[in-house]
Design goal:
Layout: H1 3-21, H2 29-33, H3 67-70, H4 80-86, H5 90-97, H6 102-108, H7 113-119, H8 125-134, H9 146-154, H10 180-185, E1 187-188, H11 190-196, E2 210-214, E3 226-230, H12 231-243, H13 246-298, H14 323-345, H15 360-379, H16 383-386, H17 392-396, H18 399-405, H19 415-422, H20 425-443, E4 452-456, E5 462-463, H21 466-472, E6 491-495, H22 517-521, E7 527-529, E8 535-536, H23 538-546, E9 563-565, E10 578-580, H24 593-603, E11 615-617
Antiparallel strand pairs: 1-3, 2-3, 4-5, 4-6, 7-8, 7-9, 10-11
Length: 619
C-alpha cells in the first residue's frame, strides 16, 4: 500500500470522529441549507475495507445484516481494517502522519486503540513536535508530554469537567480546557480560603497562582476583580507548607515564577492564534463575497446593484463558494439584490446608504409603470377595500412583483406584465396574507378604540388604527435595510387611557373606554394642550403627548387635564387626511375634511355625512 492510499485511509477513518469532536469552524448556514440524505458510513455498511485485487471486480451479493453482525459478532470481515493498518511499517507511519494537520492527529487518537498506541509510541513523538512547531505553539510544560499538550491545545473543543461543547479557550493557569461555570466551581476566592482554612497567613497568597478572576459589577465603588485559586492546588500547597515548611515555600516560589511565565507565553500565543483565525475567516468572507458578486454580474446586475449585497448573510459566510453552495444560496441572494433595487426604485434607502445610480432611467420607468398600474387597481376597488392595502413599495416587495421589478436592467418589463401580476390571484393571496398576519399579531382580538395605539419600533411613529400601520410599512417615513422591517414584531400595542380624560365632558358625548376610532372621527372637536400652544384633533393630541414634549407638563399629578376642548380651531383645518367612501375620487390622494363633506353634498347628495359610512380618515 503506497503513501497516498494510506493517507486517504486515515482521513476516511477519522472523518466521522472529526466532525463530532472538532468544532473550530463557526456555524455556517450552508451546512443547514445543504443538509440532506447522507452517504452510508463504513459503520453502516456490511463489510469493511478490503485490499484491492489485481483481477476483475465482480459484483458481490449483499447479505442480510443479522443481529450478531450488528453487534460485531460473526462478521467475516471484522477487524480487517485494523489488521491492514497494523501491518504497515513504522517508517510509513511517520511519512503518513507527517502530512496530517495536528487537529487530525488529535482526532485519530479517538478512532481506535491501534491508532492511539501507534501515535503515542516514542517513535512518533517527533511527528507531534513538528506539527506543533508548524502552528507556532509554545513548548509543553514539564508535567505534560507532546501528545497531551497537543490534545490540550488542538483537541476537541469541550469542557473537560462537564463536557460542554464550543469551549475554545484554554485556561493555562489550570492547564485545562474548562468552561466558566466549571472554573467557578473548582476555584476559591480569598474570602472562601480564609473561612475554610483557619489560622493561615496572608503571605500564603504569594505562593498560590491565580487561575482566573471573578468579575465585579460596575456599580460597586470598588469594582476590582476578585482573584480565584484552584481548590486542589490550595489544598496541596497548604498541606506541603504544614509538613515541609520554609524549604517548600522557597521552591514553590521558583516554580510559581516558571508557571506564570509559561502561562503568560501561552495566553499571548492563544490571542495571536485567535487574531490570525479571525483574519483568515474575514479573508474567506471577502473572497466569497467577491465570488458572489462575479456570478451576479454575469447574470446582468450592475455594480450599483451589488453595493449592498453584503447585507445578505449567505453571501458572507466563512466557507469558500462552490457551485453546490451557489445553487443553494442563489435564490436568497438574487431575492436580496432585487429587494435592494426596489428600495432604490422607491427611494426608501436610508441616507447613509444612498448610492449613485447610473441606471436611474430604468428604475424610474419601472416605478412610473407600477404606480400607474397600482392606481388603476385602486380605482377598480371600493374605497373600503383599498383603505387597508399595503404601501406600494411593500406590494412591490412581495414575491410576485419582486421577480419582475427587481430584474436586471437588460430585462424587458412591459406594463402589460405588471397588470397581469396585479390582477392575478397569487398577488391577491400574498396581500391578504400580509394584512392578516400583521392584524393577528398586532391587533389580535382587540378593538380599534381610542385607548390603544400602535407604535413602530424602527422609526417610533405612532398610529391609532391598523389601516395606517399597513400603509406605514416600507413608507418614506420608515426607511430601513433590514429584511425584517415588515415583521409584525417591530410594532407594539399600548394603552393611552391615562391621558384621554380630556374627552370626558366634551361635546362628543362619548365614553373613551368604549369609543371606537370611527366614533371619535365622526366629531369635529378640537383640543388644545394646557401647557403649550399646540392644538388639533384627538389623534394629534395623542401624538403630541407621545412625543418628547410630554415632559413639559412637569408634575404628573395635577388638577388640570392634559388637553381642553376649544371647539372651532383658531385657523381653518387644511389637513388632507380624509377620503370619500362612495367613489374613487380620492384614490389618488386624500383631501381636507371640508372638501370631502362638500363633495359628498354635491356629488352624492349626502347632507349629514358620518364616519365611516360616507367618509373615513386616511393617514
Amino acid at each position: 500500500m503506497d503513501c497516498k492510499r494510506s493517507t486517504r485511509l486515515l482521513r476516511s477513518a477519522a472523518q466521522a470522529k472529526l466532525d463530532m469532536t472538532y468544532q473550530d469552524e463557526p456555524y455556517s448556514e450552508d451546512e443547514a441549507e445543504m443538509s440532506g440524505p447522507r452517504k452510508r458510513t463504513r459503520k453502516e455498511e456490511d463489510s469493511d475495507y478490503e485490499e484491492p485485487s489485481m483481477g476483475p471486480v465482480r459484483a458481490v451479493k449483499r447479505s442480510r445484516t443479522t443481529k450478531n453482525r450488528k453487534n460485531g459478532k460473526g462478521s467475516r470481515n471484522a477487524g480487517k481494517l485494523s489488521q491492514s493498518i497494523a501491518r504497515l511499517p513504522m517508517d510509513m507511519w511517520l511519512e503518513v502522519f507527517g502530512h496530517l494537520p495536528i487537529e487530525t492527529l488529535c482526532t485519530l487518537l479517538q478512532v481506535s486503540k491501534i491508532f492511539q498506541d501507534t501515535l503515542r509510541s516514542p517513535e512518533n513523538l517527533a511527528v507531534w513536535r513538528k506539527a506543533r512547531l508548524l502552528r507556532g505553539a509554545p513548548e509543553p510544560p514539564e508535567h505534560l508530554n507532546e501528545v497531551d499538550w497537543a490534545l490540550l491545545l488542538f483537541g476537541p473543543r469541550f469542557c473537560e469537567v462537564c463536557r460542554r461543547t464550543r469551549v475554545h479557550k484554554v485556561n493555562f493557569a489550570l492547564m485545562r480546557r474548562i468552561c466558566k461555570a466549571c472554573t467557578r466551581e473548582t476555584t476559591m476566592t480569598t474570602t472562601e480560603i480564609l473561612s475554610e482554612y483557619e489560622g493561615i497567613r496572608g503571605s500564603i497568597y504569594d505562593i498560590l497562582m491565580s487561575c482566573s478572576r471573578l468579575m465585579q459589577p460596575t456599580y460597586l465603588s470598588n469594582n476590582t476583580d476578585i482573584p480565584l485559586f484552584n481548590r486542589s492546588e490550595v489544598e496541596l500547597v497548604l498541606g506541603q507548607c504544614y509538613y515541609v515548611g520554609e524549604p517548600y515555600i522557597e521552591s514553590r516560589k521558583e516554580e510559581l515564577m516558571y508557571l506564570q511565565a509559561h502561562a503568560e507565553l501561552c495566553e499571548n500565543w492563544q490571542k495571536e492564534m485567535k487574531l490570525a483565525r479571525s483574519e483568515e475567516i474575514q479573508a474567506t468572507r471577502m473572497s466569497r463575497l467577491d465570488a458572489v458578486k462575479r456570478r451576479l454580474t454575469d447574470m446582468g446586475y450592475s455594480e450599483e446593484d451589488l453595493e449592498l449585497v453584503y447585507f445578505e448573510r449567505t453571501a458572507t459566510q466563512s466557507t469558500p463558494l462552490t457551485d453546490r453552495i451557489w445553487n443553494n444560496i442563489k435564490p436568497k441572494v438574487v431575492a436580496a439584490v432585487n429587494r435592494f433595487r426596489i428600495l432604490r426604485m422607491f427611494k426608501r434607502l436610508p441616507i447613509d446608504y444612498t448610492i449613485e445610480d447610473h441606471s436611474g432611467s430604468v428604475l424610474e420607468r419601472r416605478r412610473e409603470m407600477i404606480e400607474t398600474v397600482f392606481l388603476q387597481y385602486r380605482k377598480s376597488l371600493r374605497p373600503a377595500q383599498w383603505r387597508e392595502l399595503p404601501n406600494i413599495c411593500a406590494i412591490a416587495l412581495l414575491p410576485s412583483f419582486e421577480r419582475l421589478l427587481g430584474a436586471p436592467n437588460d430585462a424587458h418589463i412591459a406594463a402589460t406584465d405588471l397588470e397581469q401580476v396585479m390582477n392575478s390571484e397569487q398577488l391577491q393571496k400574498e396581500m391578504d396574507r400580509f394584512v392578516k398576519e400583521h392584524r393577528d399579531q398586532i391587533i389580535g382580538t382587540r378593538s380599534e378604540d381610542a385607548m390603544g395605539y400602535i407604535r413602530c419600533k424602527i422609526c417610533w411613529s405612532t398610529y391609532n388604527d391598523f389601516s395606517s400601520v399597513v400603509r406605514h410599512i416600507h413608507s418614506e417615513e420608515c426607511s430601513c435595510l433590514d429584511e425584517n422591517t415588515s415583521d409584525a414584531s417591530n410594532y407594539e400595542y399600548g394603552d393611552y387611557a391615562p391621558i384621554l380624560d380630556f374627552l370626558r365632558g366634551s361635546d362628543s358625548q362619548t365614553d373613551p373606554s368604549k369609543s371606537h376610532t370611527n366614533v371619535l372621527d365622526n366629531t369635529e372637536s378640537f383640543y388644545k394642550c394646557t401647557s403649550c400652544y399646540k392644538w388639533g384633533t384627538w389623534r394629534e393630541c395623542i401624538a403630541h403627548y407621545d412625543s418628547d414634549t410630554k415632559f413639559h407638563w412637569g408634575i404628573a399629578q395635577r388638577d388640570l387635564p392634559y388637553f381642553v376642548s376649544i371647539g372651532i380651531p383658531p385657523i381653518p383645518d387644511d389637513r388632507t387626511t380624509w377620503s370619500c367612501n362612495h367613489c374613487t375620487i380620492h384614490a389618488e390622494g386624500p383631501a381636507t375634511r371640508a372638501e370631502v363633506i362638500k363633495h359628498l353634498r354635491e356629488a352624492h347628495d349626502v347632507h349629514e355625512p358620518s364616519v365611516p359610512e360616507d367618509f373615513f380618515f386616511i393617514h
